[in-house]
Amino acid sequence: MAEEITSVTRRTALALGAGGAGLMVLAACSSSDGDDDDKSGSGSDSAAKPSAAADGSLATLADIPVGGAVAVELAGGDPGLVVRTGDATAKVFNAVCPHRGCTVKPEDKKLVCPCHNSVFDTTTGAVKEGPAKEGLKEVSAAVTNGKVIAS
After folding, report:
1. Averaged over 19-48, what is the pLDDT?
2. Is 132 exposed, middle or buried (0-12, 13-18, 19+ CB in 10 A)?
């Protein structure tokens, strides 16, 4: 049985190398490396956050217990948190953690960053436990007819 020997030209080798490098770049852009600095948070939250309704409301007070919070999508696509502070009051915070940009999530009447466990006060957005050094940014909002609307 005779083996066939083929020669590879320098041009062919360079073309194959460039094509392989291109595939590696595409693969890197389309996959997650599982780094704990993932800005989306824990990764287990695959459900989309509710965005503003046609009337501009982010949430309805009846859907949030006093002291509790829900994740929402703010205008412009930023993640947000609506916190019910009283029977007829609520506050809205931008949910981007000032520490590393991960998405803060409501957890047992607390606001927690799943990346590095910073905890924020539900009524003020201030840091209760670091490593974050700054609090969450409050978004101007009002409650009208039981609905929370960002101003």
Report:
1. 40
2. buried
